Amino acid sequence: MQFFKNHRLKGHTLPLGNIELTAANGKPLRTLKRQYFFTIQLNNISTSHSFIIVEELTWPIIIGADFLRECKGNINFETMKLGLKIGDQRDQINICHQAPSTNISVANLEQEKWEIEQEIKQWTSPLLSQNQIKATQCQLLDAKNIFSSSPGCIDTYQHKVEVNDDQGFRKRVYPIPKKVEAAVQEKLTEMLSQGIIRRGISRFISPLVVVKKANGEIRLCLDARQINLLIHKCGEAPLTLDEIFQKFQRAKFLSTIDLTASFNQVKLQPESQQYCSFQFKQETYCYTRVPFGLKCSGPALQRALSRVIPEEIQGNIIVYIDDIYIATSTFQEHLEVLKSLFEAFAKHGVTVNFKKTILFKETVEFLGHTITRDGVKTSQDKIETIQNFQRPTDRKKLMSFLGFLQFYGRFSPRISHIAKPLRELTSIKSKFKWSDHCEAAFNQLKEEFKEQIILYHPDFSKPFYLFTDASDVALGAKLAQKNDDGLYQPVQFASRALRQAELNYSVYEKELFGLFWACKKFYQYIAEQQFTIFTDNKALTSFHKMKCPNQRIIRWMLFLQGLNFDIVHIPGKENVPADYLSRNNPEAQTSPQLFNICLAVRPNFEALQQIPDQQQRDENLGTIYGQISNGDLEFENYKIDNGQLYFKDKGQWKLAIPNTLLDEFICQVHIYYNHIGINKTMKICRQNFYHPELTKRTTYLISSCHTCQTSKIQNKSYLNPIQPIPARQKGEIVSLDVMGKLPMSTGQHRYILVVIDNFTKLIRLFPLRKNNAVNIIRAMELYIQQEGQPNLLVCDRGTQFTSGMWEQYTSDKSLAYKLVPIRHHEGNITERAIRTVEDQLRCYLKDQPHKTWYNYLQDIENNLNQVPHDTTEATPMWAHQGRQPSRPWENILHLKNTTTIPQQKIRENITRNRHRKLRKTNNSRKFTSLNVGDLVLIDQTTISDASKKVMAKLLPRREGPWVISQRCGRNSYELSDVNTGRIRGIFHINQLYKYTNPRHELLT
Q1: At CA 119, angle to CA 114 and CA 120, rounded to 5?
Q2: Cβ-count burial of 48 within 10 angstroms (0-12 exposed, 13-18 middle, 19+ buried)?
Q3: Which residues are the signal sequence here (predicted)?
Q4: How many CB atoms lie within 10 A of CB 466?
């Protein structure tokens, strides 16, 4: 159709019954569905004819035999002229034009096939006998048609590229060096003839990149960084290294198959081809096959090959991105796998690069590892790279070195331990100063990889032996199996330092925890089979007989009871593999201060399913439960419904929570809503649950939360009373302010517009790319559309709110607004809301890059709107929208949230709580007294670093805890490390915050 548009031909499109277009070899190419009828002029002859529309023809128009018959065509090959006759019209047309040339010819193809045959006939392997070599050569000759330097075309799968944004983009074309320009043009012509690309039109133009291969040839790739940002992530997760290594277990024969231009063999769906486009010499080309450079290229090839490779041989084949590995224990099995694989390739159009294919080897290289029939070793060239690594001169080079070593962590149990001084240098909290300790650690790490270390393949027909040990500061473990000589050969090592809360465990708890941790670490090896544990703690041999264990130990025991093992006691001096690891852990020697702010995964409240059982076992509830269920007594305030005991509290039936589940439930609610305060936690718990000590336990537990103590603002004293602007109904007064500057998110956002209704306390968070009137007006338009237009806006005196554009906008919308005095933060309630948003972000971003703050914005908004507000005593969602938020335990326990608070009650609560706060703030300031031995926190002093995308506001506010070692004056104290006694310095009392040890493990 593009031909007709370019030449402005006028005609009519006619329907066409589905006609199959086939190649000369009979292979179907595509279905034709349209034809075009128009008048053509050939020299002096004019005639009308219908033409079938075929995309991607070499020539724009081809005259067929039916046309020649109609026009009585006669070809004279001596004069190279075509004679035509239509009625009385006669004419002759020159036909001496040459067809467009390609790099592929019959002679070239025949030459390539002949060369491949010669290579096959000369192929040999020192691992095989002469008969086996001949059998392999015969197999290869039978499959010679799949060996080609041209990529095939897999017919079982077409890949679909899904993008998030359909706006399109056009990246600047990279200049192509003149020296390779001709080679690029030749390559494009070749790819056109092979059907890998086509000429077309696209709104998604990525730059073309020329990559020179080792053999001197060039490869054309896309710089697909922009389109990769828009492409949906593919769902397939690649196999882990452990899973891949297990497939090579006991393999005597190994082979690697290299596909010719692997990704280019996978077809793209027609609608996806526009996303893979580039320009060269002002011509636009679209890939019809998957190009190199897309983040979905690997998964696309994996999907295609999974539909090609027969299921019966997939157990012997490992596909990793574009590499195919074959592993078998016998020659005959290997040959049969090759035969099945090659037949499948021939059937479905896959081609193989024979020159890069390696067959029948004892070892293969895989991701920097050397794989043998016995086990896995580090590649020799990687060992040489480590030995030749120069001393790092900055953080970037040091992190590169440590990251390189960490990839081989399974081969040495001491990498993380030795590297502690080096890891400290990577912290932005300290200057990059290379010390003698760093030099010693650097050299010792090199020494660890001076020789190849082998980890043996696990043999699941033999028993496993697990060595575990725990010291005061660390855990160590080694998984091993016995060889034929009765010696223990390693399968894998593991060790780690104990965390802050774990350091407080008793000796027995540390030993049991070490056993639990090691079993979880090696679970994939030891599950569903008998194994033996060696420990130097004799008490562990009878851990299952322990009386009155705490909840933490019960969880460990429940996990261990699902495993089948024997525990054998050995003296510490004989438990060398594990004992050495735990007691020589330099990382644990100094007890690093870690900020364990929050868990990435929210609690699931599965423990609440045990409520009926725990109620019956409870000392108080159990008696009542039994009397009601047996019909002995009836209680006015107790009932059993659906097997659960309820208590009537102030006219509302609430689930009676037993003592054993109370603390864990309170902590889970606190963590689920990202460390909300004590009052909010109590109000949520009280909605459905009752316990006489709920208030006391909530205060007791949450006041000791490590995350809250280190991350949230602690008001040491009370300032002048706040006089808020009173609001009597929804939408009467709305306050707004801008939070930022934040690290730039992936969507180029750097600010947050915080909008809060003064009456209902509903908070809305809008991300902004720039802090200006234009973006704020857009956000306010969205707020008004969703929540309604307010009567009065309260904002600060920022330039965006004093600009003419803002004044014009509020005038056009008939919006009254009030500007609070400069630096008078109490006049705008969003200042307090911003502190809460910062606390929430700080908790979310503990272990995440700060630029990902945008991903948590909606969660933070939901958290703040779904928990009761201290002033209204209702959730902002209920006060503003008249609906209650759903709680995660309602579906589990079949509960309904029937709590309602009328608007009048909300007004009364606001008035009462405002007066209460005024009375409270009028009291004299409170001072804290500290004593030697008390634990305290100090303010975090880390500053923002734009180069590392770290913002000080999103870091924990405080660090610690530290212990007061002595008093140095009336208001000064000396602080030291809790574990090592290292002096931190002397601090004024106003810089210290009293710290309470977490009273529950979930709060650490």
Answers
A1: 95
A2: exposed
A3: none
A4: 25
Q: Residue 6's pLDDT band (boundaries 50, 70, 90)?
A: low
CA-CA-CA-CA torsion sign (134, 136, 142, 146): negative
Residues of the chain with CATH 1.10.340.70: 606-703
Question: What's the mean per-residue pLDDT of the chain?
Answer: 80
DSSP β-bridge partners for residue 32: 19
DSSP code at position 26: S
The dotted CATH code for 107-371 is 3.10.10.10
Q: What's the token pair of residue 602? A: 């929210």
Which pLDDT score, from 0 to 100, does residue 1 have? 52
DSSP bridge pairs for 739:
752
Distance CA 654, CA 621 (A): 14
SS (H, E, C) 728-790: CCCCCEEEEEEECCCCCCCCCCCEEEEEEECCCCCEEEEEECCCCHHHHHHHHHHHHHHHCCC
Where do the CATH 2.30.30 domains begin and end in the chain? 935-1003
Give 599 or 806, the one with higher predicted confidence: 806
- The architecture that CATH gives domain 935-1003 is Roll (2.30)
Q: What is the pLDDT of residues 369-417, one digit of tens each?
A: 788 777 788 777 777 888 888 888 888 888 888 887 777 767 766 676 6
d(CA 244, CA 248): 7
Q: Read off the pLDDT of each residue in 640-645 and give the average, rounded to a whole number.
A: 90
Q: Which CATH number fits domain 606-703: 1.10.3430.10, 3.30.240.20, 1.10.340.70, 3.40.50.970?
A: 1.10.340.70
Query: Are 44 and 89 within 8 A, CB to CB?
Result: yes
How many angstroms from the chain centroid is the CA of residue 642?
41
What is the third-level CATH fold of 460-589?
Answer: Nucleotidyltransferase; domain 5 (3.30.420)
Q: What is the predicted pLDDT for the residue at 17?
A: 61
Contact 207, 278 (CB under 8 A): yes
Cα–Cα dist 23/531, whole Å: 62
* Architecture per CATH, 2-94: Beta Barrel (2.40)
Torsion, CA 427, CA 428, CA 431, CA 437, rounded to 10: 0
The residues of the chain that CATH labels 3.30.420.10 are 460-589, 733-921
| Tens digit of each residue's pLDDT (9 = 90 or more) over 908-921 | 777 787 777 766 65
Q: List, in sequence order, the alpha helices (H) in 250-373.
A: 297-308, 331-348
Q: For 186-190, 263-267, 570-574, which range has the lowest pLDDT when averaged over its residues?
A: 570-574
Please compute, for residue 290, the number of CA atoms within 13 A of its CA located in the half-sphere on the CB side: 27
Tell me if residue 417 falls in helix, strand or coil: helix
Report the 3 state secondary structure along 489-520.
Answer: EEEEEEEEECCCHHHHCCHHHHHHHHHHHHHH
Domain with CATH 3.10.10.10 in the chain: 107-371
The closest of 767, 755, 763 to 795, measured between CA atoms, is 755
Q: What is the pLDDT of residues 478-531, one digit of tens each?
A: 888 888 888 888 888 777 767 778 878 888 888 889 899 889 888 888 888 889
Domain(s) labelled CATH 2.40.70 in the chain stretch across 2-94
Please check whether residue 584 is in contact with residue 415, taking contact to mean a CB–CB distance below 8 angstroms.
no
pLDDT surpassing 70 at residue 722? no
Superfamily of domain 733-921 in CATH is Ribonuclease H-like superfamily/Ribonuclease H (3.30.420.10)
**pLDDT above 70 covers what percent of the chain?**
84
Per residue in 768-795, pLDDT (tens digit) is: 999 999 999 999 999 999 888 999 998 8
Asked whether 284 and 199 are in contact (CB, 8 A), the reply is: yes
Beta strands at 689-690 and 652-656: parallel, antiparallel or unpaired: parallel
DSSP annotation of 950: B
Provide the pLDDT for residue 860: 92
Pick the closest to residue 155 from 344, 321, 298 (CA basis). Answer: 344
C-alpha–C-alpha distance, residues 752 and 430, integer Å = 31
pLDDT at 920: 66
**Farthest-apart Cα atoms in the chain, separation:** 122
